[in-house]
Amino acid sequence: SLATSIGGRTFDNCMMNAAGIRCQSKKDLDALIASNAGAYVTKSATPEKRAGNPSPRMQTLPHGSINSMGLPNNGLEYYLDYVIDDQHNRPGTTNFLSVAGTSLEDNLAMLHEIQDSEYDGFVELNLSCPNVPGKPQVGYDFDRVNTVLDQVFKFYTKPLGVKLPPYFDLVHFDQIAEILNQYPLTFVNSINSIGNALVVDPQTERVAIRPKGGFGGIGGASVKPTALANVRGLALRLKPEIAIVGTGGILNGVDVFEHILCGASMVQIGTQFGYEGTKIFDRLASELREIMNQKGYTNINQFRGKLKTF
Ligand code: DHB
How many structural domains does the chain have? Predict the structure, then answer.
């Protein structure tokens, strides 16, 4: 079985999409519902609809992708209506509603609206969007993260997780974990893209994407070691009630297996899901099943977090 559970909710497959990729429209989300994914997450919402940054704003790369989409989305109401409808149609299923306000006030306003709604699924509060000009990634400002969570948990009582940017220093793992452990978070999702990287085309002597002078977030194969370090670094430091969602660099069943070994209870696929579409969940499921069969594992909890060190 590839089943998993987070915060008392069960999922028949531990794999799902990552926010942002093929999840902006109702049609995209309907395709995820029809797929073998264990859940879906909606494109990060802002209070109002946004067009995002000018194109070209995403480029495929030999080992991943670069993007600076700039939060194009249909606004919170669109996604909140969708997940509430789905909750009526498929009672007992849990999905993820992503919100990414560009200010503390916007995040609090959206979470108040969700708190006051019928929605009872997960919310993924995105503290790591790197692509809105002039807006820093909240996850790199530890005092700000603490302020956001302090304000949120004064009123918010539904299951909530945070999407974090990658960290690159073990002391930063200590510092973020110490803050997160003070709150009743259901999960943390690591990692968002490696932000503000630069891809150069030597032929044309130009950058790969238009926004922000070419600076954008990297996803795909290139980010897997950073993602695994963040999943493992957080798994070793967070209280056991906080589940880890592992995101970054998943292309095949071995990558899923490695994320789970590092401590992930659920994994999300972004770049490669963009390239393959929903059939990727069939392929990854059969590849992970094959690895588990070879190793004699019958469920993911038998190896989750059990990475060995020398
Ligand atoms: C966008 C990119 C992100 O990595 C994110 O977390 C949210 C939004 C974007 O550019 O749309």
Answer: 1
